[in-house]
Automatic annotation (TrEMBL):
Subunit and partners: Homohexamer.
Protein name, per record: Uridylate kinase
Residues holding UMP: 52, 72, 133-140
Magnesium in keyword set: no
Ranges where the Aspartate/glutamate/uridylate kinase domain occurs: 17-214
Length: 237
């Protein structure tokens, strides 16, 4: 990566793809794709980890009696569907895209190979990572942190629905909760702030990877975050 090129790992939740409903909402995903393509066209190297909560959530399925490992694999397959949908809309928006899957399915995606992903980024392609870590018991938040470290991203960008950053407490239950412009990973973990998976916080903290947690609304926020504008909450070591 040249010194002048910014490289980011964007985490998108599955709920963002469905607009709170089951499946993929084409209007919503198209809007997200246009913002990503616009930012990528400005010279930022963009990699993306997608969730699968609009199809399956392994943890929730396991609570209803399904074996956890199998439920998690179902969730991983949901992320691949989202990755392929995002690829299509990104290409419609003019971006060159590659999907890499942690579970081999060579007819629809490349296998996850970090050096190949980096090469795609250096060539100006957007890389979408699907199938989570390819292992059960890992959230896609944690995968986002791991992928960011492996491709040597400058920071992890976590796009959230319904919240615009990290708050001192749950704003849905505590009206006195206030948004924090900056916080350390240690403070977030000690205070039990669950806006991002604690394993992802720990992984970033231990390896000095900065994170920005921001809201997807209003429109334009994703492009602004990718380009480095100050949004949401910055989490650092």
């Amino acid at each position: 990566m040249s010194a002048s090129r910014r490289r980011v790992l964007l985490k998108l939740s599955g709920e963002a793809f469905g607009g709170g409903a089951l499946g993929v909402n084409p209007d919503i995903v198209s809007g997200i794709a246009r913002e990503i393509a616009e930012a990528a066209a400005s010279g930022v190297e963009v990699a993306i980890v997608v969730g699968g909560g609009n199809f399956f959530r392994g943890a929730e399925l396991s609570q209803r009696g399904m074996e956890r490992g199998r439920a998690d694999y179902m969730g991983m397959l949901g992320t691949v569907m989202n990755a392929l949908a995002l690829q299509d809309f990104l290409e419609q928006a003019g971006a060159d895209v590659r999907v890499q899957s942690a579970i081999q399915m060579t007819q629809v995606a490349e296998p996850y190979i970090p050096l190949r992903a980096v090469r795609h980024l250096e060539k100006g392609r957007v890389v979408v990572f699907g199938a989570g870590a390819g292992l059960p018991y890992f959230s896609t938040d944690t995968v986002a942190a791991q992928r960011a470290l492996e491709i040597k991203a400058d920071e992890v960008l976590v796009a959230k629905n319904g919240v615009d950053g990290v708050y001192s407490d749950d704003p849905r239950t505590n009206p006195d909760a206030h948004k924090l412009d900056e916080i350390t990973y240690q403070d977030a973990l000690v205070n039990g702030l669950k806006v991002v998976d604690s394993t992802a916080f720990s992984l970033c903290m231990d390896n000095g990877m900065p994170m920005v947690v921001f809201g997807m609304e209003p429109g334009g926020n994703i492009a602004k975050a990718i380009c480095g504008e100050a949004l949401g909450t910055r989490v650092t070591r």
